[in-house]
Amino acid sequence: MHTETSIVVKTRWHPLWIPFFFVFRTAVTIDGSTSVLPWGEYVFPVEPGTHEVRVSLLYPKSEARIQVDVAQNKTVRLRYNGPAQILVPGGKLEIVP
């Protein structure tokens, strides 16, 4: 049984981005602490409470942010979809079941 209090962030890219998959990394920031990571799914242990999550492709206009409440021993799952075109504004970050 999963008992860790955490936020799971899955980063996805638009299919047109496949040639750039290995070039662009994502920046995941939770409460001001940033991790620069390849595309994929990552688990971030957190304390119970409200957390600000920001994800971007290392350029400001791709940033998306959300505030989430995480209960004790629960996991909140988020999905970030990068913009459809490179260097165009519009990343999307949402809670998924």
Give a short account of the largest sheet.
4 strands, mixed
Radius of gyration: 13 Å
What structural class do you assign from the helix and strand content?
Answer: mainly beta
> Could you tell me the number of beta strands?
8
Write down the CATH topology: Immunoglobulin-like
Query: Strand order of the main beta sheet, please?
Result: 4-1-7-8
What ranges have pLDDT less than 50 throughout 5 or more consecutive residues? none
DSSP summary: helix tally: 0
Share in β-strands? over 45%
How many structural domains in the coordinates?
1
User: Into which percent range does the helicity of residues fall?
Assistant: under 10%
Q: What is the CATH architecture annotation?
A: Sandwich
Record the SSE blueprint.
Layout: E1 6-12, E2 26-30, E3 33-37, E4 41-45, E5 49-56, E6 64-70, E7 75-81, E8 92-96
Parallel strand pairs: 1-7
Antiparallel strand pairs: 1-4, 2-3, 2-5, 5-6, 7-8
Any overview of this molecule?
- By secondary structure, the chain is an all-beta fold.
- The chain has a single domain (6-73), classed as Immunoglobulin-like (Sandwich).
- The protein is built from no helices and eight strands.
- The protein has a four-stranded mixed beta sheet, with no helix packed on it. It has a four-stranded antiparallel beta sheet with strand order 3-2-5-6, with no helix packed on it.
- Strand 5 (49-56) and strand 6 (64-70) form a beta hairpin.
- It is elongated.
- The protein starts with 5 loop residues before the first strand and ends with a strand.
